[in-house]
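Human: If only I could read backbone structure tokens as easily as an amino acid sequence. Underneath my words sits a plain record pairing an amino acid chain with its backbone structure tokens. Take your time, and here it is.
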Amino acid sequence: MSFNIYPIPPFYDPLKVKEIWRVLYEKRALDALEWANKYEIKPAYQDKIKINLIIIDVQNTFCIPGGELFVGGRSGLGAVEDNQRLCSFIYSNLGNISQITLTLNTHQTIQIFHEIFLINDKGLHPLANTLITSEDITSGKWKFNPEIGASIGLNAKQGQEYLEFYVNELKKKGKYDLTIWPYHALLGGIGHALVSSLEEAVFFHSIARKCQTDFELKGFNPLTENYSVIKPEVDHDSKGILLGSVNQKIINNLSLFDMTIIAGQAKSHCLRSTVEDILSAIIGKDKALVNRIYLLEDTTSSVVIPGFLDYTDEADAQFEKFKEAGMHLVRSEEPLKNWIH
């Protein structure tokens, strides 16, 4: 396999990755057409080696310092540094990447992982970053907030029963405890939007390669967490009613591309869960598909809340398991040709 390495356009400024700004679409469209002509970049449909780059949740809420759930990692600037490398990777491989798939965490105010959903006997809601165990619910430490019930179609009894079912399902499945996150990634809000520098790079790619960017929204159901783009953490209620279907499109696309590269945030949560679900879907069916997956490990960081939570070691250990299963751990500065063994 042979791949070209392309120069990075002069307008790209890595120092702006940490900022929110408006992409100049018309100007960048002209730039992209000129760039494609100058470097003989062909439309993506002509690619002999087809590559899909899946980017998980590179949104302002997770990636801009001061964002509601900024993924700082242990360095404190994790997501910013990751996205500087990710943008450079896209530009350097502009003519190699056939498709870009973007996932967007998409939430509402009233969701099971936001504080408004729970209440205690004093009428208080749990603070952000509180971990809710099954014991917390069965003991009555935290309860379903009956005042939100009407807005999501549950009465007080139904809401409490569902909450008990939910946390027990998480425990049974070996998932993270229910985490009360700060309000984040709210649909229509600035936190939901893509990081501006990444949006610019993806738009530039779409024009230069003459291909539509694929957007996958996840996390809108108020009754479940949805770290993974493949399926929710709990996919049915106590009566067996589905809370979210499997994203079969992502799974099916694995066979359509020679390489699937996965990047984005957070290594410990949404990216990890997505890769776990992909692996579960294909490991027993087609080992060759597992070998087509490349995890861009220097463009992702884990959730770290200094002095409180640090998921880095756990995420790193899981990535080693992905490698043992047949996936490839790669770095953005390496030429693609060096990835192939």
Summary: The chain is about 35% helix and 15% strand. The chain has a mean pLDDT of 96. The two ends are 10 Å apart (CA to CA).
